[in-house]
Amino acid sequence: MKKIVLSLVLATAFIAGCDDKFAELDPSTAGYDYYPLEVGDYRIYDVTNIRFLHNVGDTTRFQMRELVDTTFIDQTNTVNYKIIRSIRADDNSEWQEDSVMVVTKSLTNVILTKDNTKYVKMVFPVKEGKKWAADMYNTHTIPEEKRNDFMSDRDPFKIKEPSTFIDVDKPYSVGGKSYTNTVTIIQGTPIDPIMGIDDRKEVYAKGIGRVYRIFNRATFAPCAPNQCAFGEQFKLDGHERHEVLVSYGKE
Predict the structure, then answer these.
(1) Is the bond into 143 cis (omega within 30 degrees of 0)?
(2) In DSSP terms, which residues pair with 239 in a beta bridge?
(3) Where do the DSSP E strands lie in the chain?
(4) Residues 193-250: pLDDT tens digits?
(5) Who contacts 250 (Cβ-Cβ below 8 Å, separation ≥6)?
(6) Is residue 78 part of a domain?
């Protein structure tokens, strides 16, 4: 327990950083516009969701909308944004409310709360290669068998998965649309490709917000003769999900 508490403290210090004190941030370069947040903002995504079991995929496709509905002040005098997530089968269907999230945005980070669990979605300033512990405010930890034994117990990422900025202010294309200035957040760390896949990332565009998300986790198993195509892995079980922005605006 003491190790976990110490690691969380170190993760907090790591996020702040010696050179990233909020008093010194330049709003024009901090990257705040990668995560715009105003009441009435909405984003609609095409979602492809695939569940794998014994190498058989079950695919569903639908649309998802995230709407910044209202704000409220909590006991710490912080402004919280209530975000309603709704889904529908297609453009001709009615939206059905699916879940509610709460987001706070400060000079140093963006925190999303869903199902009573907090995640640090982004930190400021946005810098190439910068890392932080997205799970620093919740109880999620890296399983013991997956921890890097070469890392010191004082390293916050021994028990917490890192999120990392890459391709800052780079162009990105997805879903037939191109965005001039984007940043990609890599979530977690790669695993042995023989054993499985763990590909999780989110892409944000300036002035727009998240334009793409992929969640692709699967455990591989040996292929029996004639069971897999050449170069294909047998997915014992897994979950693959793609979210592509199709429209956004303000109500």
Answers:
(1) no
(2) 51, 217
(3) 41-53, 56-73, 79-88, 96-105, 109-114, 117-123, 131-133, 162-174, 177-187, 196-205, 209-221, 234-250
(4) 778 889 999 999 999 999 999 999 998 888 887 777 777 888 889 999 999 999 999 9
(5) 38, 40, 41, 42
(6) no
What span, in angstroms and rounded, lies between the C-alpha atoms of 159 and 182?
Answer: 29
Give how many domains the chain has, as a whole number.
Answer: 1
- Residue 240 sits in which domain range? 2-34+45-62+127-250
Q: How far apart are CA 230 and CA 51, in angstroms?
A: 22
Report CA-CA distances (Å) from 197 to 168, 178, 239, 240: 25, 27, 10, 10
DSSP string, 83-98: EEEEEESSTTS--EEE
State pLDDT tens for residues 9-50: 444 444 444 444 444 678 779 999 999 999 999 999 999 999
Return the residue matching tokens 């996020």.
15
CA–CA gap between residue 186 and residue 132 (Å, rounded): 11
In a domain, 86, yes or no: no
SS3 237: strand
DSSP string, 52-76: EETTEEEEEEEEEEEEEEEEEE-TT
CA 143 to chain centre: 19
* Whole-prediction pTM: 0.86
Give pLDDT, residue 175.
95
Name residues whose C-beta falls within 8 Å of residue 33's C-beta, 6 or more positions apart in sequence. Answer: 206, 207
pLDDT tens for 121-142 read: 999 999 999 999 999 999 888 7
- The answer to whether 136 and 12 are in contact (CB under 8 A) is yes
Kindly state whether residue 122 falls inside one of the protein's structural domains.
no
Structural domain contains residue 88: no
